[in-house]
Design goal:
The complex is a heterodimer.
Chain A: E1 5-13, E2 22-27, E3 30-35, E4 47-51, E5 54-59, H1 61-74
Antiparallel strand pairs in A: 1-2, 1-4, 2-3, 4-5
Chain B: H1 10-23, E1 28-32, H2 35-43, E2 54-58, H3 63-66, H4 69-79, E3 84-88, H5 102-107, E4 112-114, H6 118-127, E5 132-139, H7 144-156, E6 162-169, H8 171-180, E7 188-192, H9 193-199, H10 204-211, E8 215-218, H11 222-238, E9 243-245, H12 257-266, E10 267-274, E11 278-287, H13 296-299, H14 315-319, H15 351-358
Parallel strand pairs in B: 1-2, 1-7, 3-4, 3-5, 5-6, 7-8, 8-9
Antiparallel strand pairs in B: 6-11, 10-11
The chains are: A alpha+beta, B alpha/beta.
């Protein structure tokens, strides 16, 4: 359950307070609202590592795609559905 | 995946295996901490590819598995209170407490909801002002920042009908409990990648030095795991005991500062009961006094008797590395994923469930 899943930031809402910085993240087409407050460096188009609705790190695109396809192969993406 | 050619990087997998056979001269027992790693080792058939001298044992690396029966009873009690919406990650629903599981309570009419994120629970509280929304805040250090953030956001939004049942567990104290056991068998550790994405690697330096064990922070794909095992065995063969980072592409030495700030804002370190292991000092997080109105234990004044585990379940021996799932007399007969005796059979990341699903040959 500690799995973090990489996805692409497709929208950012800065919010009035940095605590509420959030965005839309696409996981190969499945979109989720994700808190971006712990990755202040994350920008539009970046790939972030998401765990239970909160982005905890930024990853490069190639790495993100490789991790995602591995998780898909392992059948470990049910939590997104 | 049964064939090396199916892995993300088959050449790398072959190379690490070849190296591992070359450097291994003696028997070594290694423990992987993370349930995701256990799942990957078993599902990908890696255990059968390793040199025979290398014994992998499966640590307490699944928060679902180590949540104590008493905490599950607290969750069940909360779920059955009037006007409570009890929210949880899906994995926790089937775990048996002393009498039943949350799934049973839900079937009997309790308002139990599966959520993807604790932040959704805060919104649920806003949308249901006449209800009390409680989130079951389980997890290792990886999940603690999100649960902490839910409390901070609720406080900032003035939400008063939200609270959490905190049952966080911490990895380094569990490693110390295993290493400090006089019957300890573990020569080296693969530390959990995503836990370290949050916490960094510095907590492991004193443990490696005190117990003279190599600790290698490792990812969860086959090539990651084999490289982590190779790095650990290489250290053991040389007689060194350093903290190394196989998963540097995801783990910075200093971790994620914002995530740790959220944890320290909301949680204090506390003693914690681990299912199958017992109480480990300073091995969990509890909600700080400053946020006590978000602590479900205090808000609802929960007072329940402490319950014991099912005596037939040997999960404590499994999670300390003394036994393998197949050595349990109940494995696969009285204890199956459909009717688990203990938690490692419930979660897909539990060692017993992983063996049951993927190691049909043993």
């Amino acid at each position: 359950m500690c799995l973090a899943i990489p996805g692409k930031v497709i929208a950012i809402h800065e919010g009035e307070d940095a605590l509420f910085r959030k965005g839309k993240v696409s996981f190969s087409g499945i979109t989720r609202e994700v808190s971006l407050c712990m990755v202040p460096e994350a920008a539009l188009g970046d790939y972030v590592l998401v765990h239970v609705g909160v982005a905890i790190g930024v990853v490069n695109e190639e790495e993100a795609k490789q991790i995602f396809s591995y998780l898909e192969q392992m059948g470990d993406l049910e939590e997104l559905l | 995946m049964k064939y090396i050619s199916e892995y993300r990087d088959p050449q790398l997998v072959k190379k690490y295996l070849h190296e591992l056979f070359r450097v291994t001269t003696r028997p070594w027992t290694l423990m992987e901490i993370c349930g995701g790693q256990t799942h990957s080792l078993v599902k990908n058939g890696l255990l059968d590819m390793l040199p025979p001298q290398i014994n992998m044992v499966h640590g307490p690396g699944c928060p679902v598995c180590v949540t104590s029966v008493s905490v599950l009873d607290e969750a069940l009690w909360l779920a059955q209170q009037p006007d409570v919406i009890f929210c949880s990650f899906g994995d926790m629903l089937r775990v048996p407490g002393s009498s039943q599981s949350l799934l049973h309570a839900k079937a009997a009419g309790a308002d139990v909801r599966i959520l993807y994120s604790p932040l959704e629970a805060v919104q649920l509280a806003v949308d249901n002002p006449t209800k009390e929304v409680v989130f079951f805040a389980v997890g290792f250090e990886t999940t603690a920042p999100a649960n902490a953030l839910s409390v901070v956001q609720a406080a900032a939004r003035g939400v008063t009908n939200y609270s959490i049942l905190a049952s966080h567990v911490l990895v380094p104290p569990a490693m110390e409990a295993i290493l400090g056991d006089p019957d300890n068998l573990i020569d080296g550790f693969l530390a959990a990648g995503h836990v370290c994405t949050i916490m960094g690697t510095t907590e492991y330096d004193p443990i490696a030095a005190k117990y003279k064990v190599p600790i290698v922070v490792t990812g969860f794909e086959p090539a990651d795991l084999l490289q982590g095992i190779l790095m650990t065995v290489t250290q053991l063969e040389k007689g060194t005991y350093k903290v190394e980072n196989q998963y540097a592409r995801m783990v910075a030495r200093e971790g994620n500062a914002m995530a740790m700030k959220a944890i320290h804002e909301v949680f204090d370190v506390s003693d914690r009961m681990w299912r199958g292991i017992g109480s480990i000092p300073e091995s969990g997080y509890e909600v700080k006094a400053a946020y006590s109105q978000y602590n479900a234990r205090l808000k609802f004044n929960i007072q329940l008797p402490v319950r014991e585990e099912d005596p037939d379940c040997i999960s404590g021996d499994i999670m300390r590395g003394h036994k393998k799932p197949v050595q349990c007399p109940a494995f696969g007969n009285r204890c199956k994923p459909e009717h688990p005796l203990g938690a490692p059979m419930v979660s897909s990341e539990g060692a017993c469930a992983a063996y049951y699903q993927y190691k049909s040959s043993v």
